[in-house]
């Protein structure tokens, strides 16, 4: 009986020891897991805050860069406008005008021609005179008497002075004593075509003037 009781006590004691050890291990594990959870949460919080701070700093830096770039563009634009405004404008060169006397003479001849013109385009000009006599055959060589007298007729018909006239064409117009010439003033791009005929002992007579 005593041995049996003693054995039962010993058995209970061992069981209690094992239970106490197991309980202690469980408590240690609980403490360890709780510590990790607490410490892990604390560590994550600073990390999130750090990321947020970095993002905020990055956003502020980008905003500052954009403001700086915008300011530089404004300064460059102001500088360009200032430079453009400071550059003097070149005034167009006035066209050379003929002397007052020459201009007055051209206008007077032009008015005379307009007065002599009729609705058909045939002018009522008189022959310009001639140094030639007898039977006449036109000569179209520069420097010839005919050339000089035909040039005078061109000037009379168009109102362009001979010394300001460009002769583009001067030649025969179908018969030996009919001529045609195309002229313009040296300071103008307007061309005129003049037809004329030679009147014996009176010279070349302008017939028509057409603006080309």
UniProtKB/TrEMBL annotation:
Which residues lie in Acidic residues bias regions?
Answer: 63-77
**Pfam hit, one:** DUF1510
Q: Where is the DUF1510 domain?
A: 122-211
Give the region (Disordered) as residue ranges. 40-146
Q: Does the keyword Isomerase apply?
A: no
Q: Which organism is it from?
A: Metabacillus mangrovi
Superkingdom in the source lineage: Bacteria
Quote the InterPro entries the UniProt record gives. Answer: DUF1510
Polar residues composition-biased segments:
44-60
What name is this protein filed under?
Answer: DUF1510 family protein
The regions listed as transmembrane in this protein's record are 21-39
Which keywords appear in this protein's UniProt record, sorted alphabetically? Membrane, Transmembrane, Transmembrane helix
């Amino acid at each position: 009986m005593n041995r049996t009781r003693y054995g039962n006590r010993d058995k209970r004691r061992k069981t209690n020891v094992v239970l106490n050890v197991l309980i202690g291990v469980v408590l240690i594990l609980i403490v360890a897991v709780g510590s990790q959870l607490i410490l892990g949460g604390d560590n994550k919080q600073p990390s999130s805050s750090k990321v947020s701070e970095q993002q905020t700093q990055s956003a502020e830096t980008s905003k500052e860069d954009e403001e700086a770039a915008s300011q530089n563009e404004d300064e460059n634009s102001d500088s360009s406008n200032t430079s453009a405004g400071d550059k003097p404008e070149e005034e167009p060169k006035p066209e050379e005008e003929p002397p007052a006397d020459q201009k007055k003479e051209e206008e007077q001849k032009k008015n005379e021609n307009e007065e002599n013109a009729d609705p058909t385009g045939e002018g009522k000009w008189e022959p310009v005179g001639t140094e030639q006599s007898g039977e006449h055959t036109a000569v179209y060589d520069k420097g010839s008497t005919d050339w000089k007298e035909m040039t005078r007729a061109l000037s009379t018909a168009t109102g362009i002075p001979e010394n300001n006239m460009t002769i583009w064409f001067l030649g025969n117009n179908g018969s030996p004593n009919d001529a045609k010439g195309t002229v313009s003033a040296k300071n103008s791009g307007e061309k005129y075509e003049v037809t004329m005929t030679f009147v014996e002992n009176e010279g070349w007579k302008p017939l028509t003037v057409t603006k080309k």
